[in-house]
């Protein structure tokens, strides 16, 4: 970005903050990429794995939501500064437009990740609910089998 000698210090600070967003988002994307769906051989370990997976997704979702709040606040302030620049003879108009485009891009990127994480959270929660139901049904089935074995006299007594 080109900074002129007449540029408002608030604009300079805001543009520096905006210039930092791509790096922050990149770090968050890399951390999010490390989250893997769990694999398990039995219901109990699958439930534990899904709980951990959901927790990791919620942490990532929170990070993306937080940066989204910052971006939206900066976007609002930048638009106010742009309006002031258009009303006056400020020489920072072009620089402000570039910053606006950068913020819009950052906001769109973050929104895409938020939606993706929300969809994964929904899918993981449905899977977890189904696993918990299967676990309850398995316990019921095991009790029925045990009662049948006792009834037959297979060595188990009450």
Query: Shape from CA axes?
Result: rod-shaped
Main sheet overview: none
Order of helices and strands: HHH
The unreliable regions are 1-5
Number of domains: 1
Given helix and strand content, the structural type is mainly alpha
Tally of contiguous helical segments: 3
Give the termini distance in whole angstroms: 80 Å
β-sheet strand percentage: under 5%
What oligomeric arrangement do these chains adopt? single chain
Q: How many beta-strand runs?
A: 0
* Rg from Cα: 27 Å
Calculate the mean pLDDT score and round it.
Answer: 87
Please estimate the helix content.
over 70%
Tags for this model:
158 residues; rod-shaped
Description:
With 158 residues, the protein is mainly alpha-helical. The protein has one domain (9-130). 82% of the residues lie in helices and 0% in strands. Helix 1 (9-33) runs antiparallel to helix 2, helix 1 packs parallel to helix 3 and helix 2 (43-87) runs antiparallel to helix 3 (93-152). It is rod-shaped, with a radius of gyration of 27 Å.
Topology record:
Blueprint: H1 9-33, H2 43-87, H3 93-152
Helix pairs in contact: 1-2, 1-3, 2-3
What is the structure about, briefly put?
By secondary structure, this protein is an all-alpha fold. It has helices at 9-33, 43-87, 93-152. The chain has one domain (9-130).
